[in-house]
UniProtKB/TrEMBL annotation:
One of its GO terms (cellular component) is eukaryotic translation elongation factor 1 complex. Belongs to the EF-1-beta/EF-1-delta family. Keywords: Elongation factor, Protein biosynthesis. The lineage of its organism: Eukaryota, Fungi, Fungi incertae sedis, Zoopagomycota, Kickxellomycotina. Residues 106-192 form the Translation elongation factor EF1B beta/delta subunit guanine nucleotide exchange domain. It comes from the Eukaryota. Signal peptide: none annotated. It comes from Furculomyces boomerangus. GO terms for molecular function: guanyl-nucleotide exchange factor activity; translation elongation factor activity. Residues 69-96 form the Elongation factor 1 beta central acidic region eukaryote domain. Gene3D superfamilies: 1.20.1050.130, 3.30.70.60. This is Translation elongation factor EF1B beta/delta subunit guanine nucleotide exchange domain-containing protein. InterPro entries: eEF-1beta-like_sf, EF-1_beta_acid_region_euk, EF1B_bsu/dsu, EF1B_bsu/dsu_GNE, Glutathione-S-Trfase_C_sf, Transl_elong_EF1B/ribsomal_bS6, Transl_elong_EF1B_B/D_CS.
Length: 192
């Protein structure tokens, strides 16, 4: 069932409704507000219909700001801005291509490898540690450092490429030599 009412009566009813409500539906602007706004032919008289006038001014200010409150997808694309964006993107790609790849991030790591006891053959332990090969891992200098009670630990340095090798991965590989290694600690870590 549909009812036809005059514009004046419609505005009066709407003014009464907006006396207690900020918007047509809910507490924010909605599609319903947009439809009612479009149905009004002109701005209402502020003295005769103060609540409708307040609501109308608020919705109109939102429409004037070009804020798409109602989710319309029919916005026109600014072709000039799009061309400028594409041009800048191409310039950026060309500049990046001439630069070449960035150098790989490297780190210098010093590890303390602790044996189980003083009878562990540290020369053999060092050979086993150096036998670990990974892409991005280069072993460096090593030395035996006394811990106490005749026990020494192996302190060994390596350079790693961060993208390929992590310290956790190296520690896991070294601790897999369970007969010789009690624990592995990172003694020093420095980005190069």
């Amino acid at each position: 069932m549909s009812v036809t009412v005059s514009a004046k009566l419609f505005e009066t009813i709407l003014n009464g409704y907006l006396e207690d409500n900020s918007f047509i539906v809910g507490s924010d602007l909605s599609q319903a507000d947009s439809e009612v706004f479009k149905a009004l032919s002109a701005a209402p008289d502020a003295k005769a219909l103060p609540h409708l006038s307040r609501w109308y001014s608020h919705v109109k200010s939102q429409e004037d700001e070009d804020i798409d409150l109602f989710g319309s997808d029919d916005e026109e694309v600014d072709e000039e801005a799009e061309k400028l964006k594409q041009q800048r993107l191409e310039e950026y790609k060309a500049k990046k291509a001439t630069k070449g790849p960035a150098p790989a991030a490297k780190s210098m790591v010093t590890l303390d490898v602790k044996p189980w006891d003083d009878e562990t053959d540290l020369a053999e332990l060092e050979k086993k540690v150096r036998s670990i090969e990974m892409n991005g891992l280069t072993w460096g200098a090593s030395k035996l450092v006394p811990i106490g009670y005749g026990i020494k630990k192996l302190r060994i340095s390596c350079v790693i490429i961060d993208e390929f090798v992590s310290t956790d991965l190296i520690e896991e590989q070294i601790t897999s030599f369970e007969d010789h290694v009690q624990s592995v600690d990172v003694e020093a870590f420095q980005k190069l």
